[in-house]
Amino acid sequence: MSRSSQPPDLKKYMDKQLQIKLNANLLVTGTLRGFDQFMNLVIDNIVEVNDNEKNEIDMVVIQYLIR
């Protein structure tokens, strides 16, 4: 899949619980509340799981970066 193709349609995941793996093996779960054409995500009720530690966060925007 080339980077110039259309991003995935995330509408079917709206208001659903997602598990997202981020850089540095950081794992978060939360509810998808919004997104844009650049695949930036708005996630509500985030729970960050790091080893045996859990950290609850209210709402975040996860920015998609292409390297």
Automatic annotation (TrEMBL):
Domain Sm, which positions?
5-67
UniProt-annotated location(s): Nucleus
GO (cellular component) term, any one: SMN-Sm protein complex
Entries under Pfam families matching the protein: LSM (PF01423)
Does the record bear Nucleus in its keywords?
A: yes
Under the GO molecular function aspect, what terms does this record hold? RNA binding
Which UniProt keywords are present, listed alphabetically? mRNA processing, mRNA splicing, Nucleus, Ribonucleoprotein, RNA-binding, Spliceosome
> Alphabetically, which GO biological process terms does the record hold?
mRNA splicing, via spliceosome
Described purpose of this protein according to its UniProt entry: Probable common Sm protein, is found in U1 and U2 snRNPs and may be part of the spliceosome.
- Which family, according to the similarity comment? Belongs to the snRNP Sm proteins family.
Tell me the protein's name: Probable small nuclear ribonucleoprotein G
The organism of origin for this protein: Capsicum annuum
